[in-house]
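Please check both lines for our workbook:

___
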Amino acid sequence: MKGLAALTVAGSLSITLAAVTPAAVAAPHEHSTTAVTHSLSASPDGVNARRCRPRKFLRFHFVRPRNFFIPRTRFIDGPGGSITASVTRSHRVYAEVEFEREKRKSRTRSRQRTNSRTTTPPPPPEGEATITRTTSRALTRQILRELRFMVNPLLAEEHIVEVGHTYTREISPGMYGNLWYRVFGYRVGFSAWRVIGNCRVRPVGTGIANIPARVEGWRYWETKHPTFRGRKLSER
């Protein structure tokens, strides 16, 4: 199934990033970021000899660098000369995570509405929606805590770009200079697991999260012509 990780930029603009949920993975082995998985042993009378405290834990499958570009902050100058830009607008970039199981329920309701013209399934209760939002926020905080320990202590649940810095760059003769403001961060693939009372491990869900960091700056590159999304804007 597919999961959804949404990156929202507060203000007048927003970006939504669709992500494909990674395939189901095998039950994790013991390592530094997961809980210990015990084998199940039984006594002669069939009663489990070992009991475990129920708990949940995360396993990370990949952590890749990711740039979150701020809208309306891309500039093109040239040919030649120099380019200078600064950011003074206010934006908020934060992480949001959804389980694939929640997405599957949503798609099931959509198919019911499409296949039947006479009945409309009732919307989920308000209490259920509140529980879902609370679970997503708790999962995001847990991912951040573990990634701060593993990867980068500067990871943030949200990052506000209020005042950037001025950047100046000399453009090569005959070339066009491009600047775009970005927030650095990571794209993380994860799976959530639950340990039940008999020490067995059960999968809860998988997904992809986009996590911003408290680091930002300009990206500069040069092109022969002014371009946008791979299309030439002008001959000169």
Observations:
- Residues 3-232 form one domain.
